[in-house]
Amino acid sequence: MIELTGWEPLGISVDWAAIEGELGVPLPADYKELYEIFGGGVFSDSVYFLGRDESPAFDFLAQWRVDLSVDQDSKLGSVSAVEPYAIYAPGGKGLVEWGSTEWADEYFWLIDAERPSDYPILARSNDIGAWHRYDMYTSEFLYRVLDDADFQPFGIAQYDLGTTFQPGSGDPSDSQPL
């Protein structure tokens, strides 16, 4: 990803133990490395990468808290926005969003507290709606989205957007997530 984007690693320090303590599971090691290098922000002006930022715009933990509260809100009935799945609740099994696109594609990990080292990626495209499962690392999935035109329906290389990265500005009005 560093070579692809020409990015200079930031070396962000994160208290992963506190974050993983709240979630009740460890996060994928390659995701943590990606975040420490890039922080939260936007790849190729269209792929939003959530991290652990002070601003809520690119903060995956804030996004997860919102998703979980909506998913568990009994006033909304028993339908989940991520059917046939649910948003991950500590100790259970469900989805945690870590990325999305300006076209409303969404990228999640399927987390199972009983299998804390297994992080399949579930993604869906707004145009298609069906879930796609990928048994690969977060960094591999993101790389293929950005650089593999044949990685359909999620590859964006055919749009020739370049492979840039723009850190989150901290201004929620400048962002799509949440």
TrEMBL record:
It comes from the Bacteria. Pfam families: SMI1_KNR4. InterPro entries: Knr4/Smi1-like_dom, Knr4/Smi1-like_sf. SMART domains: SMI1_KNR4. SUPFAM superfamilies: SMI1/KNR4-like (SSF160631). Residues 11-144 form the Knr4/Smi1-like domain. This is SMI1/KNR4 family protein. The lineage of its organism: Bacteria, Bacillati, Actinomycetota, Actinomycetes, Kitasatosporales.
